[in-house]
Amino acid sequence: MDPHSAILTDLKQKTDKTLKHVKDQLGSIRTGRASPTLVDTIRVDYYGTSTPLAQIAHVSVPEPRQLLIKPFDGSPQVVKDIEKAIQKSDLGLNPQSDGKVIRLIMPPLSGEQRQKLVHKVKDLVEQNRVAMRNLRRDANKQADQLKKDGKLTEDQCKKAHDAVDKDLKGVEQRLDEMLRAKTKEILEE
């Protein structure tokens, strides 16, 4: 693999990882609607081991504003452990349990809460834009170093810089799309 391709492959892996991270972060931000991704980041103390909620329970959406969490292991202790984990999370939701399943009811968001969430989403996306700029800078430095070491010609270095910029523009467009979609979701009634 030529050095130019190696730079772009490395950049692609890093940007894909960052985009997945952004998607996960945005999925855990509460909106007026119920979504199983809302509880993806919750970890439960399951028999002494910190375990992702999705690995110990089925999460479904029986109604637009409700999540139903049904533990695979129906023991009352597991249900209590899941409740504790939800209460400790920053979701701001109060779990309701009948001893076998847990329901999370999403209260409607006020206009002020919606604006705070939109601001939080914008901040999160902006932090990741900065991370993308840092990835661009690192990739360009790598190309410059390869040119300095004689492994790339002047033209190859310029092409590497152009390819890095082109790739990052596409990634920034995807970030913008994620921001628009999440903002629309938050502002909908």
Form type: elongated
Helix content: 55-70%
Strand content of the residues, in percent?
5-15%
Distance N to C terminus: 51 Å
Helix/strand order: HEEHEEHEEHH
CA-based gyration radius: 22 Å
What characterizes the major β-sheet?
Answer: 4 strands, antiparallel
Count of DSSP strands: 6
Strand order within the widest sheet?
3-4-6-5
Number of helices: 5
CATH superfamily of the largest domain: Ribosome-recycling factor
Low-confidence stretches at least 5 residues in length (pLDDT < 50)? Answer: none
Identify the CATH architecture of the largest domain.
Orthogonal Bundle
And the CATH topology of the largest domain?
A: Topoisomerase I, Chain A, domain 4
List keywords for this structure.
189 residues; 6 strands; two-stranded antiparallel ribbon; alpha+beta; Topoisomerase I, Chain A, domain 4; 14% strand; 2 domains; Gyrase A, domain 2
